[in-house]
Amino acid sequence: MPWKAVVGGSVGNLVEWYDWFVYSSFAVYFAASFFPEGNDTAKLLNTAAIFAVGFFMRPLGGWLLGRYADRKGRKAALTLTVTLMSASALLIAIAPTYEAVGYFGALVLVIARLLQGLSVGGEYAASATYLTEATPRGRRGFASSFQYVSMTAGQLVGLGLQIILQNSMSKEALNSYGWRIPFVVGALAAAVVFYLRRSLLETEAYDEEERETESGGQRGTIKELLAHKKEALLVIALTMGGTVAYYTYTTYLTKYLSNTAGLAKETATLVSFCALFIFMCLQPLAGALSDRIGRRPLLITFGLGSMLGTVPLMTALGGADGFGGALVLSLTGLIIITGYTSINAVVKAELFPTHVRALGVALPYAIANALFGGTAEYVALWFKDNGIESGFFWYVSGCAAVSLVVYLTMRETRDAALSRAEQAARDSVPARI
């Protein structure tokens, strides 16, 4: 295992997603700072709408930074994305409140989320492509699972910091200025990762493509992506169910346990922290399993479990009255979606050739996230605000059902060759009789 590459790609991803998720984790504290007085659900709807705005920038970020990664290299794209994320976190940290400047503070939030969306739109593809290409065949599922290990670790760091602040600061102090602390931490951490990523080596697959292609003019272009439109549509469809389920059981879960189940914010945060920690540890195990049995069995297991289990699980979570029951139910949902999260990055990367791999992963995935992942929390709160909260559970199940059809009909990608040299090496092995 090329551990330096795995760690280098993952640690930056951790900071990227720490900044991305900390917005949602601390929304319950800063919502009142940027909007006038009103009911709590309305304020959360406003902050959720701004959260969704970031997702709608992800297709643009996926196109621009995916193209950049295919033309200039995976390492260059990884360095650029973390720079953008540091700047956006700093903007949120210094954003003025509604009391001071009216809605201008909310405008600063929107601009920061636009930058975050641009950055994360490229980060996912650059990280997924780098981790996949930098690892030998037969270990790619395991290595690429660290993308969601780092994503979840970023969220855990955010939740852990929230727990510390909840227990060391008064509620008034958190609502006033304490919520700014995690954004300052994120900006500083991203600056450190910038220097770490500069020491990474470029992948052999990209170097080979750059050497053997006379002109880089066609690398990472929409024209080349359209030559693989079937694979691009496949990425959108297989992402649909997974991204809705993931954001339901991660970013939305704390609010759901607090607003619907009636758990204290501190208890809801602790439930999320413990469940996500176990979920994070499961990712490499599931990724390694996919290297042995293939990617499709895990995806199909997720599709079935999410389609059939979301309604009863979320209904039961809404009635959870303590830490233990909420933890078991939350963890059950996260175990189900592990079949998607642990391998979705490698599956997408294995679908495309090197010259358009980053763009092929970035743009379709970003579109799916903008349409389904970024709106999941807003849709959930909309159903709640209209008194039909259970409708959201059926929406999640329906998205999973669509993706399940794709998992059942798609080709297995585990043995895909990611470079000409790899294909030649495979072709040179005599067939077994």
Automatic annotation (TrEMBL):
Q: Which residues form the Major facilitator superfamily (MFS) profile domain?
A: 5-415
| Function noted in UniProt | May be a proton symporter involved in the uptake of osmolytes such as proline and glycine betaine.
Grouped into one coarse class, the protein's main location is membrane
Which species is this record about?
A: Nonomuraea zeae
- A GO molecular-function descriptor: symporter activity
From the Swiss-Prot or TrEMBL record, give the protein name.
Putative proline/betaine transporter
Q: Cross-referenced InterPro entries, in alphabetical order?
A: H+-coupled_symporters, MFS, MFS_dom, MFS_trans_sf, Sugar_transporter_CS
Report the subcellular localization: Cell membrane
Q: Which family does it belong to?
A: Belongs to the major facilitator superfamily. Metabolite:H+ Symporter (MHS) family (TC 2.A.1.6) family.
- Pfam families hit by this protein: MFS_1
Q: Gene3D superfamilies, from UniProt?
A: MFS general substrate transporter like domains
Q: Which UniProt keywords apply?
A: Cell membrane, Membrane, Symport, Transmembrane, Transmembrane helix, Transport
- Transmembrane stretches, by residue range? 44-65, 77-95, 101-125, 146-165, 177-196, 232-249, 269-286, 298-317, 323-347, 359-380, 392-410
Q: One cellular component GO annotation, for this chain's record?
A: plasma membrane
Q: What's the protein's topology in the membrane?
A: Multi-pass membrane protein
